[in-house]
């Protein structure tokens, strides 16, 4: 009987619970035992009560729950060899040799490393007498499948990540609220949104709310020139009758000399223009809360496919990432997508912004 563990890692994202639910129920449907790893990699290291077998009814009602109900953590110990060895010990002790990880690129890279190291870790556990060779024989390989849970939508090779559209929807709703008060007072608001090094949330929120101006890392603003351009645009919109101004700033926004552009930098320029300007940093309200229908569906379809992938994989199959491309659930070699995602950061560092935009797979950015 296949035993599959499912865990969430890194920042939570709306839809993670739907993904766990789908893995649990699909696994049970196919006759597997499914375990939840509580508290991300930290739970994998601690083992025992952090690995709990899940029943069909345990995940009832999880579609509409925000965050991740099995907890998550950013765990430094898992970066260490001894930490991964401890995690391997805990999994083998429970008889688990398949892991579905829902997280961002860092968490998934850690999972892929764990998988590639697994045979060595098992060998070490035999050599130091922790397990006999017979005991570990059925666990010589680890099967690992990745699901991208992140509001940032920063993974190359997938049109969207679990949680991105929920965060986007929430940002739009909040910007609408801000616009209402801004119009009342003829004010300008600079709204900072999340996304880490990715401008997807800022860009799409800006378009969806009709913002005056948007700052994203991939289309870096020209140093010493963006200030006058911003003023000119906001002024032009006012002359056309707009009563307020909205500027969306990605938290990772840069100028083309790679200087960070903060919401306050932008506000100061608007104040120079004589506007009554204020800053709103949306923060974690973007990440919490329930998932929109798109993310519930995406997470469900991907969770189902993750279990199928586990059952179909051979030790030679590279760890797959389950994504969505042109409305189809797809499997891609995980590390291929991770490498592409990392290369965007390198392109930005090298000021090759056109290439960075291309790799983001978002038509709007071009
Ligand atoms: O990756 C998701 C994300 O919400 C980013 O957009 C943000 O930069 C980061 O996580 C915040 O992390 P934390 O919740 O640990 O402060």
Radius of gyration from the alpha-carbon trace, in angstroms: 23 Å
User: N-to-C SSE series?
Assistant: EHEHEHEHHEHEHEHEHEHEEHH
Kindly report the spatial arrangement of strands forming the biggest sheet: 3-2-1-4-5-10-11
Mean pLDDT: 95
Strand tally: 11
The residue ranges in which pLDDT falls below 50 over 5 or more consecutive positions are none
Helix content: 40-55%
From the N-terminal CA to the C-terminal CA, the straight-line distance is 49 Å
Largest sheet: 7 strands, mixed
Shape: elongated
Our count of helices gives 12
**Bound ligand species:** 6-O-phosphono-beta-D-fructofuranose
Coarse structural class: alpha/beta
Note the beta-strand portion.
15-25%
Describe the protein's architecture and organization.
The chain is an alpha/beta fold and 366 residues long. Helices cover 44% and strands 16% of the residues. The protein has twelve helices and eleven strands. A seven-stranded mixed β-sheet has the order 3-2-1-4-5-10-11, with helices on both faces. Helix 4 crosses helix 11 (334-349). The protein is elongated, with a radius of gyration of 23 Å. The model has no long low-confidence stretch (mean pLDDT 95). 6-O-phosphono-beta-D-fructofuranose binds at residues 11, 104, 150-152, 194-196, 251, 287.
Offer a concise description of the structure.
The active site is at 152 (proton acceptor). With 366 residues, the protein is of the alpha/beta class.
Could you give the topology of this structure?
Blueprint: E1 3-8, H1 16-29, E2 33-37, H2 40-46, E3 51-53, H3 81-94, E4 98-103, H4 105-127, H5 133-136, E5 143-148, H6 164-185, E6 188-193, H7 200-209, E7 213-215, H8 226-239, E8 245-250, H9 263-272, E9 277-281, H10 293-312, E10 320-325, E11 328-333, H11 334-349, H12 353-359
Parallel strand pairs: 1-2, 1-4, 4-5, 5-10, 6-8, 6-9, 7-8
Antiparallel strand pairs: 2-3, 10-11
Bound molecules: 6-O-phosphono-beta-D-fructofuranose.
């Amino acid at each position: 009987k296949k035993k599959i563990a499912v865990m969430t890692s890194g920042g939570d994202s709306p839809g993670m619970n739907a993904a766990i639910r789908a893995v649990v129920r699909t696994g049970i449907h196919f006759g597997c035992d499914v375990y939840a790893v509580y508290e991300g990699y930290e739970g994998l290291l601690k083992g025992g009560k952090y690995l709990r077998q899940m029943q069909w009814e345990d995940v009832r009602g999880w579609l509409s729950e925000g965050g991740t109900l099995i907890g998550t953590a950013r765990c430094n110990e898992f970066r260490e060899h001894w930490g991964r060895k401890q995690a391997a010990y805990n999994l083998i002790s429970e008889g688990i040799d398949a892991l579905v990880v829902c997280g961002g690129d860092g968490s998934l890279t850690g999972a892929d490393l764990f998988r590639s190291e697994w045979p060595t870790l098992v060998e070490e556990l035999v050599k130091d007498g922790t397990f006999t060779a017979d005991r570990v024989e059925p666990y010589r390989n680890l099967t690992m499948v990745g699901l991208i849970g992140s509001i940032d939508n920063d993974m190359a090779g997938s049109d969207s990540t679990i949680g991105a559209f929920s965060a986007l929807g929430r940002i739009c709703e909040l910007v609408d609220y801000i616009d209402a008060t801004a119009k009342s007072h003829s004010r300008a608001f600079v709204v900072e949104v999340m996304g880490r090094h990715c401008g997807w949330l800022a860009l799409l929120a800006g378009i969806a709310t009709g913002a005056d101006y948007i700052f994203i890392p991939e289309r870096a603003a020209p140093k010493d020139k963006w200030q006058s351009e911003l003023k000119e645009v906001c002024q032009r919109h006012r002359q056309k009758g707009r009563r307020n101004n909205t500027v969306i700033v990605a938290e990772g926004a840069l100028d083309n000399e790679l200087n960070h552009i903060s919401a306050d930098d932008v506000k100061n320029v608007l104040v120079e223009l004589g506007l009554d300007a204020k800053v709103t940093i949306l923060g974690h309200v973007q990440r919490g809360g329930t998932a929109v229908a798109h993310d519930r569906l995406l997470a469900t379809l991907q969770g189902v496919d993750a279990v199928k992938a586990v059952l179909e994989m051979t030790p030679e199959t590279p760890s797959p990432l389950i994504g969505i491309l042109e409305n189809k659930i797809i499997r891609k070699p995980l590390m291929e997508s991770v490498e592409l995602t990392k290369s965007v950061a390198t392109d930005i560092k090298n000021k090759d912004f056109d290439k960075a935009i291309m790799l983001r797979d978002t038509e709007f950015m071009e």
